[in-house]
Amino acid sequence: MLTYNLPDKYLKINASTLKWIACITMLIDHSALALIYHAILIPNAPLVYGTQLYTLYRIYKVMRGIGRTAFPIYCFFIVEGYLHTRNVKKYALRLLAFGIVSEIPFNYLVTMKARSLEYQNVYFTLLIGLLLIWGWDYLSQKKMELVQIGLAVVLCLAAEYLRTDYGWQGPALILFFFLMNKWRVPQCVLGSAILYNEYPWVLLGYIPMLFYNGERGRQWKYFFYAFYPVHLIILHLIAVNIHYIA
Fold first, then answer.
1. How large is the C-alpha radius of gyration of the chain?
2. What's the CA angle centered on 3, arms 225 and 94, to 5 degrees?
3. What is the extent of the structural domain holding 151?
4. Strand blocks (E) in 36-182
5. The predicted structure's pLDDT at residue 121
6. Which of 81, 86, 165, 190 could be bridged to 122 by S-S, CB 3.0 to 4.6 A?
7. 127 is a domain residue
């Protein structure tokens, strides 16, 4: 059985590099939302075609597009984490803890308010996806196919109902990555269809995954976890100062 579809000589990207790609593209995305959209575009609306403000809006759209790169990579590593962790329960609790810590910074990023039920941060999406593949794997061993399908439907609907980032598509993509984890090219090509509404930018996230070699690289474990809430806090503080100066 093939583990990778591309020849070994092309597999040059390790886990650490992939995570850096996800962090940097996410930072570009969130910088556009905090520093351009909230700090400049909204206070100076409406937009007028041909003005500098409209040009800035187009830059904002490109930056948000680049940010679509990050999500499939994070979903991919939920599967990798599940397959290699020694304790799935601790893994799930870690995602939950960082989801709780990140919620207020995320609310400020999206709504500029500390409290909001409008939208929940990506850690909750990833947690639901982890619970899905954990349950799916357990039920598979018990030969309970109908219950597996029911679990997938319930958790995808839960993500949608709770309005987690990317909704049902997040758990669905994580499950697909899990089921196809031995076949990288089909995993990436077919998996991209789940995020159809993010085309074409989201395709950028699948390209580096094709060259993943399965190696860990230098580990920055808690840095990558903490990067999410910390960068949200910093961006919000900068945005508030930009708005204040303006």
1. 19
2. 20
3. 8-245
4. none
5. 95
6. 165
7. yes
Determine the pLDDT at residue 4: 60
CA distance 114 to 105: 7
Q: Residues 102-110: contacts with CB within 8 Å, 24+ apart?
A: 102/228, 102/229, 102/232, 105/229, 105/232, 105/233, 105/236, 106/229, 106/232, 108/232, 108/236, 109/30, 109/33, 109/34, 109/232, 109/235, 109/236, 110/33
Mean pLDDT of the chain: 91
Identify the three-state secondary structure at position 54.
helix
Q: Kindly state whether residue 198 falls inside one of the protein's structural domains.
A: yes
CA distance 96 to 33: 24
Q: For residue 208, say if its preceding peptide bond is cis, omega within 30 degrees of 0.
A: no
Residue 1: the pLDDT is 44
Structural domains counted in the chain: 1
pLDDT in tens, 105-119: 999 888 888 887 788
Q: What is the separation of C-alpha 194 from the centre of its chain, rounded to a whole number of angstroms?
A: 13
Residue 3 lies in a domain: no
| pLDDT tens readout for residues 4-55 | 678 888 899 999 999 999 999 999 999 999 999 988 888 887 888 888 899 9
Q: Say how far apart CA 175 and CA 162 lie, in whole Å.
A: 19
pLDDT of residue 2: 47
